[in-house]
Specification:
Shape: globular
CATH class of the largest domain: Alpha Beta
Strand content: 15-25%
Number of domains: 4
Helix content: 25-40%
C-alpha cells in the first residue's frame, strides 16, 4: 500500500519523480560507511530549486525528516537514511548553469559531479582546483555540505575558499540567495559560510556559484621512499622551502600493498616502510633543478632512500594512483576510519603520541595510514580481523577513538578534518567544539530548521 504521505507529496508536486523500490531504497539510503541498514520512506529526485522548496514545505506539514543526498561518497554516515526519512537526491539537478568570464565564476546545480565541473572550467581556460580521488562520483553539493578538502588543500584550500555564492532551501522552506557572487560584501552576517560544512542540517544547497582559478602551471610528480615515519615532516620542510608545492601526500607500506593488490604497479624493487607523493610546479628548468636539489638534500640527510620522478603525464597518473587508489582498495574490508587534523606545526608531537596509542590499541589489527600530511590531515583505517564480529570490531575501535579524541583535544585538533561529523563522529564532537559552541550551533539550527526535519540525528550529540 502506498504511504498516504507520498500521495500528498505527489499531489503537491505532480511532476516529481519518486522511487520506492527495494533496490533504490537500499542504494540511496546509505553512504560508504555501510554500517547502518538503509530504511528510507522513498527517494525524491527534484530537478529545480522550486521542487526542493515544495518538498521541504510538504515535509514540515507531514513531519517527515529529509536526508539530502549527493554522490554518497561520505565516510561519516551523513547521508544515511535508516529511520523512514525521505531521501532528497540531487543527482538530477546536475546542470552547469552559466559561466561569467569577467568574474571568473561558474554557476552549477548542486548535483553536478566534481569532475564535470573541473572539465567545464578547463573548457574556458580556467580551473576549479578543489580535487579528490572520488572526483568522478562526488558532487558539488556534498563537497559544500562537508567543506571537503582533498589532495590540493596545501595549495588551494578547502571547498569554502571557492564558494562565491549559494542558493539554499532552508528547513523553513525558504529559498535564500547568499552573497550572489560578490567579492566584497560587508552587509551583515555571511550566511553562505554558515551553510558550508553544515552537513544538510540547516537546509539543502541547490545551486552554487564557484570561483575559478587560472590554469595551473606545469607540474611534475615524485614518489619518495622514506626509512622512518619521523622523516615525513622533515621531508615536507625540505621540499616546501625549495618548491611551490601543489600536493604533499603520504602513505605506508601496508597501504601500498593493498593498492598494488588492487591492480596498481609498484615502481620500486623493494618494500619501504613509508612513501610520499609530492606534486610541484615546474614552470622552467630552474623549477626542475630546484626539485632535484630538494631530492638530493633529502637523500644526503638520510630522510629519503629512493625516489621516482614522473617522465610523462601517464607516469604521473600511475604515481598518483598509488595514493588515490587506497580508499577503493580498502573498501571491500569495510574499514573503521578516523579522519583527523591538527595544525601542521603540532603534527610532529601529535604523531609521536598517537603512534604509541594506536600500537597499544590495535596490537592485532591491520592499520593503514595515509593522508594530506602537508595540511595536517591524517587518515587512519583499521581493518577488521577475519572472523571477528562487526559489532565487536566497531566497539573495540570506538574505545581507541575515545582516547584519540582526548589526544586531539590536547593538541587543539579536530576529530573530522574533511569527512564531516554525520552519525559516526557525533559522540566526539565535544572534543573539537566547546559546550558553548555546540549550544550556539543548536540555536542556529532552531532558527533555520525549527521543526528539526533537516538530516535529523546527524552532527549533534544525542
Amino acid at each position: 500500500m502506498t504511504d498516504p504521505r507520498l500521495e500528498s507529496l505527489r499531489s503537491v508536486l505532480p511532476g516529481l519523480q519518486l522511487e520506492c523500490g527495494p533496490a533504490e531504497l537500499e542504494h540511496f539510503g546509505r553512504d560508504w560507511t555501510r554500517r547502518w541498514t538503509p530504511a528510507p520512506l522513498a527517494i525524491a529526485f527534484p530537478r529545480q530549486a522550486q521542487d526542493v522548496v515544495g518538498i521541504v514545505q510538504w515535509a514540515r506539514r507531514e513531519g517527515v525528516v529529509l536526508v539530502p543526498s549527493g554522490g554518497r561518497t561520505g565516510l561519516s554516515g551523513g547521508a544515511v537514511a535508516a529511520n523512514g526519512e525521505l531521501v532528497v537526491s540531487l543527482e538530477r539537478m546536475n546542470r552547469i548553469l552559466g559561466f561569467d568570464p569577467v568574474d571568473r565564476t561558474l554557476q552549477v546545480q548542486a548535483g553536478a559531479v566534481l569532475q564535470v565541473v573541473q572539465e567545464a572550467a578547463r573548457s574556458h581556460g580556467l580551473a576549479y582546483p578543489v580535487d579528490f580521488g572520488s572526483r568522478g562520483s562526488c558532487t558539488i553539493g556534498g563537497n559544500i555540505a562537508t567543506n571537503a578538502g582533498g589532495i590540493r588543500v596545501l595549495r588551494h584550500g578547502n571547498t569554502r575558499e571557492w564558494i562565491a555564492g549559494l542558493t539554499v532551501v532552508t528547513g523553513r522552506g525558504e529559498l535564500l540567495e547568499l552573497n550572489r557572487g560578490l567579492v566584497k560584501n560587508s552587509s551583515g552576517y555571511d550566511l553562505r559560510h554558515l551553510l558550508v560544512g553544515s552537513e544538510g542540517t540547516l537546509g539543502i544547497v541547490v545551486e552554487a556559484t564557484l570561483k575559478l582559478a587560472p590554469s595551473p602551471p606545469p607540474t611534475n610528480v615524485m614518489l619518495l621512499a622514506l626509512p622512518a615515519f619521523e622523516a615525513v615532516m622533515e621531508v615536507f620542510s625540505v621540499f616546501r622551502e625549495r618548491l611551490q608545492l601543489e600536493a604533499f601526500e603520504f602513505f605506508t607500506d601496508v597501504a601500498l600493498r593493498h593498492v598494488v593488490g588492487h591492480g596498481a604497479s609498484d615502481p620500486f624493487d623493494q618494500v619501504h616502510p613509508y612513501y610520499v607523493v609530492v606534486e610541484f610546479a615546474v614552470a622552467d628548468e630552474a623549477g626542475e633543478a630546484a626539485a632535484m636539489a630538494a631530492f638530493e638534500r633529502a637523500m644526503e640527510a638520510g630522510l629519503v632512500v629512493d625516489g621516482v620522478v614522473s617522465q610523462s603525464d601517464a607516469q604521473a597518473a600511475q604515481i598518483w594512483q598509488l595514493r588515490e587508489g587506497i580508499t577503493e582498495s580498502l573498501a571491500p574490508r569495510r574499514p573503521y576510519k578516523n579522519d583527523v587534523s591538527v595544525r601542521v606545526g603540532a603534527m610532529p608531537a601529535f604523531l609521536a603520541e598517537i603512534q604509541g596509542l594506536l600500537g597499544e590499541g590495535y596490537p592485532d589489527f591491520e592499520v593503514v595510514w595515509f593522508g594530506h600530511i602537508g595540511d595536517g590531515n591524517l587518515h587512519i583505517n583499521v581493518l577488521r580481523p577475519e572472523g571477528m564480529a562487526e559489532q565487536a570490531f566497531i566497539g573495540r575501535c570506538e574505545q581507541v577513538t575515545r582516547l584519540l579524541s582526548d589526544v586531539l583535544a590536547r593538541h587543539g585538533g579536530s576529530i573530522s578534518a574533511e569527512h564531516g561529523i554525520g552519525l559516526v563522529k557525533k559522540p566526539y564532537l565535544q572534543g573539537t567544539r566547546s559546550v558553548a559552541e555546540i549550544e550556539v550551533m543548536r540555536g542556529i539550527r532552531r532558527v533555520l530548521d525549527p521543526d528539526g526535519i533537516m538530516n535529523r540525528g546527524k552532527v549533534f550529540p544525542d
